[in-house]
Amino acid sequence: MISCTEFIPAYSELFGYLHDRGGREEVVRFWEHLSDAFLGNLHDLAANRGLAGCFEYWSRTLSEEAADFRMTLDEDAGLFRIEMRRCPSMARLLESETIAPYPDYCRHCDVLYRRVLEPLGYEYDIDLSRCHQARCVLTVKRPDGPKETENPENKVQRVRTDKPKPRGAT
Amino acid sequence: MAEPRVLDRQAKDQLYLHRDFHGALCYAIRYLDERFGAQAVSEYLTRVGETVFASLSDRIQRQGLEPLAEHIQHVMEQENGRFQISRENDKLVVVVHECPAISHLRRTGQLYTERFCETTVWVNQAICRRAGYSSSCTYLPGQGRCVQKFWREKAP
């Protein structure tokens, strides 16, 4: 059994294996599959409870992952935000003496969550510009939330991939 | 107007134990099986054994099976597995009565693929081969039980 505490390097190696087989396209294809198949809990929470569902989802997962973070839910502003001060996954990979992290490791957080949240009508952004310091900022906005300039906490550099396909698309 | 809700946590205040990772690995195994075939699963898991567990292999090579026994005991205790570790002559024998990964997948209603236990088979083999040892793992799919054995390769 691979312990859940040893999963992250195995996950990174999976991305490397897929890349070796078919390039980045093959890695993204897996991320899309995992998003569709595995993130039903996030989908249901966000669909049923809105941004509070996002807060509930990440409260549990980030606590179990022993992340160092600040999470903010502002219902009036229509804004959910995670400031990741130390991502436990990337930090472990950076500290590893036996493996090198998959170069675009952090991008999976962009693809997986965007694919769940955007079809529900949310605006999703993640700033990965400091991911090699195990830091990032994730933002989810309700469409009726304030414009970016109205919220000083939301001044993040945008990093986006191609628009995701609809859920269930191949 | 409602006050924003804030959750601020530091890593040192929390226990690192996110069991849902077993579910992600389960999906990965099934994905590789369905997209590339069984050989891809064994190739990937061998790669994991050789890279992620390289330092464990090195310790086994230097110190024998004791580091492996300690590693398995640590993992099983950490995840609340039911198991026994014993020695049979020169073999290390691990009997898993209740695999904590499969228990978690079942308990939370997540995907379980019968090929999930191949993770143990191939990772163990890769760790041992690199250290000059051999291993076996016998299991019945879905039972959450297995018997793992480890022994030193005889010199040719």
Question: How would you characterize this protein structure?
Answer:
The complex is a heterodimer of chains A (170) and B (156). By secondary structure, chain A is of the alpha+beta class. Chain A has one domain (4-154): Muramoyl-pentapeptide Carboxypeptidase, domain 2. Helices cover 44% and strands 15% of the residues of chain A. Chain A has helices at residues 7-38, 40-49, 51-64, 88-95, 107-117; strands spanning 68-74, 79-86, 123-127, 136-141. In chain A, helix 1 (7-38) runs parallel beside helix 5 and helix 2 (40-49) packs antiparallel against helix 3. The radius of gyration of chain A is 16 Å and the shape is globular. Chain A starts with 6 loop residues before the first helix and ends in a 29-residue tail after the last strand. Chain B is globular. In chain B, strands 2-3-5-4 form a four-stranded antiparallel beta sheet. In chain B, helix 1 crosses helix 2 (38-51), helix 3 (54-63) packs across helix 4 (66-78) and helix 3 (54-63) packs across helix 6 (118-131). Chain B has six helices and five strands; from the N terminus they run E-H-H-H-H-E-E-H-H-E-E. In chain B, 48% of the residues lie in helices and 22% in strands. The N and C termini of chain B lie far apart (78 Å). By secondary structure, chain B is α+β, with helices and mostly antiparallel strands. Chain B has a single domain, classed as Muramoyl-pentapeptide Carboxypeptidase, domain 2, CATH 3.30.1380. Strand 1 (68-74) of chain A pairs antiparallel with strand 1 of chain B.
Quick tags:
heterodimer; A: about 170 residues; alpha+beta; Muramoyl-pentapeptide Carboxypeptidase, domain 2; 4-stranded antiparallel sheet; about 45% helix; globular; disordered C terminus; B: about 160 residues
